[in-house]
């Protein structure tokens, strides 16, 4: 078997399946293991106990699929056209949802494509054994993507590519074939610290180190308990995830828009009024988030996040009335956030965050291009 030719074919087949870039890496993640252990020891994973439970396994992907010696790493763009960043962020009455979650859940789509890629490789090489991964197991997808030459690790800890920015999903095929590996690309963040300074909660505590406990994506998605009160005003109108560190990144001037119809925004999630979202009951939430990654946080956390968003909106009697009407219908955890929001609304203490104003100006100047 000519593995060099097979590697070239794999990249061509991957492109035909809709992956924007395909690279190949060995499975040695020993250099990342020490970094991961320090991060876990500092408690920066917050309530994500699964990170600690599977810490050692993450550094040894060959244990996830015995016999594997290579990872075929792929990326798929998800940035939709007319993403409406500035429109949503600068209007505190709207709910901001991370752009990756506006369409259908990417896991099934990418896993299906990876399975198709594996089947195609097996047609050419019967000895192939493979297993696809899309956030489906404790695998360090970003370090593998970096080793495979898909980009470098930015100071916000995301993978960056000079021709595609960072608006892409990652997936992997673990395979048992000794394919030639790709070379990592040079890190090109230089002296830029835009992502660090723009973060509303200062979650990027130093270059390349993210304290998840302060990250808005963690607070609105992963955290199952109450959001720490000092951080609530900083969340603004972000009700599911946050994109600020990507929005401010100069490399995202070169972001590539997706042509995947499944990643197009759903109308009721694209720049929605916070009060409209607040009016959903659980049945409506489940119906309108069917097939969406948003559904996995559940209605309780969704309501908690909306209460924070409404607490950060300009004072409005309609908001106060809406919050009061739900106060006795929710859990104690959500009620705490409603009471906080009511106090904010009644005191008129809400002020627009300086970071938001700076971010909106950057987006309106064209970051990212055509979005």
TrEMBL record:
| Key words, A-Z | 4Fe-4S, Cobalamin, Cobalt, Cytoplasm, Iron, Iron-sulfur, Metal-binding, Oxidoreductase, Queuosine biosynthesis, tRNA processing
Alphabetical list of NCBIfam families matching this protein: tRNA epoxyqueuosine(34) reductase QueG (TIGR00276)
Top-level lineage group = Bacteria
Report the function annotation for this chain: Catalyzes the conversion of epoxyqueuosine (oQ) to queuosine (Q), which is a hypermodified base found in the wobble positions of tRNA(Asp), tRNA(Asn), tRNA(His) and tRNA(Tyr).
Family of the protein in this entry: Belongs to the QueG family.
Q: Which Pfam families match?
A: Fer4_16, QueG_DUF1730
Q: Oligomeric state and partners?
A: Monomer.
User: Has the keyword DNA repair been applied to this entry?
Assistant: no
This chain's protein is named Epoxyqueuosine reductase
Binding of cob(II)alamin: at which residues? 58, 135, 153, 159, 170, 217, 242-243
Q: Where in the cell is it found?
A: Cytoplasm
UniProt keyword Thylakoid, yes or no: no
Which PANTHER family does the protein's record reference? Answer: EPOXYQUEUOSINE REDUCTASE
**Where is it predominantly found?**
cytoplasm
Kindly list the organism's lineage: Bacteria, Pseudomonadati, Pseudomonadota, Gammaproteobacteria, Alteromonadales
Sequence positions that bind [4Fe-4S] cluster 2? 199, 215, 242, 245
Q: Which reaction does it catalyse?
A: epoxyqueuosine(34) in tRNA + AH2 = queuosine(34) in tRNA + A + H2O
Coiled-coil stretches: none
Indicate which residues the UniProt annotation says bind [4Fe-4S] cluster 1: 189, 192, 195, 249
Q: Write out the catalytic residues in the record.
A: 135 (proton donor)
Q: Which residues bind tRNA?
A: 224
Alphabetical list of InterPro entries matching this protein: 4Fe4S_Fe-S-bd, 4Fe4S_Fe_S_CS, QueG, QueG_DUF1730
This entry's comment on the bound cofactor is:
Binds 2 [4Fe-4S] clusters per monomer.
The broad enzyme category this protein falls into is oxidoreductase
């Amino acid at each position: 078997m000519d593995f060099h030719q097979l590697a070239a074919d794999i990249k061509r087949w991957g492109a035909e399946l809709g992956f924007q870039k395909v690279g190949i890496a060995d499975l040695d993640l020993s250099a990342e293991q020490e970094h991961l252990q320090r991060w876990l020891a500092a408690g920066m994973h917050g309530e994500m106990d699964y990170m600690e439970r599977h810490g050692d396994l993450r550094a040894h992907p060959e244990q996830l699929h015995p016999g594997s010696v290579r990872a075929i790493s792929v990326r798929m763009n998800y940035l939709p056209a007319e993403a409406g960043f500035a429109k949503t962020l600068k209007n505190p009455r709207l709910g901001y949802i991370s752009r990756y979650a506006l369409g259908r859940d990417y896991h099934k789509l990418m896993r299906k494509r990876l399975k198709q890629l594996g089947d195609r490789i097996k047609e050419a090489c019967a000895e192939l054994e493979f297993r696809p991964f899309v956030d489906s197991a404790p695998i360090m997808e970003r370090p593998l993507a970096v080793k495979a030459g898909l980009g470098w690790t930015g100071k916000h800890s995301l993978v960056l590519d000079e021709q595609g920015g960072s608006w892409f999903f990652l997936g992997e095929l673990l395979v048992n074939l000794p394919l030639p590996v790709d070379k990592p690309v040079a890190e090109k963040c230089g002296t830029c610290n835009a992502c660090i300074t723009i973060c509303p909660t200062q979650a990027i505590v130093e270059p390349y180190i993210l304290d998840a406990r302060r990250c808005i994506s963690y607070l609105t998605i992963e955290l199952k308990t109450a959001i720490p009160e000092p951080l609530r005003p900083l969340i603004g109108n972000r009700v599911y995830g946050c994109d600020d560190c990507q929005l401010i990144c100069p490399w995202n001037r070169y972001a590539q828009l997706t042509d995947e119809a499944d990643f197009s925004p759903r109308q009721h999630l694209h720049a929605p009024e916070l009060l409209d979202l607040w009016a959903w009951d659980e049945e409506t939430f489940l119906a309108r988030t069917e097939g969406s990654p948003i559904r996995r946080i559940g209605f309780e956390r969704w309501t908690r996040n909306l209460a924070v968003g409404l607490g950060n909106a300009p004072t409005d009697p309609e908001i106060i009335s809406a919050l009061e009407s739900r106060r006795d219908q929710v859990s104690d955890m959500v009620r705490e956030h409603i009471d906080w929001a009511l106090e904010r609304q009644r005191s008129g203490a809400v002020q627009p965050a300086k970071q938001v104003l700076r971010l909106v100006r950057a987006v309106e100047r064209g970051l990212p291009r055509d979005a």
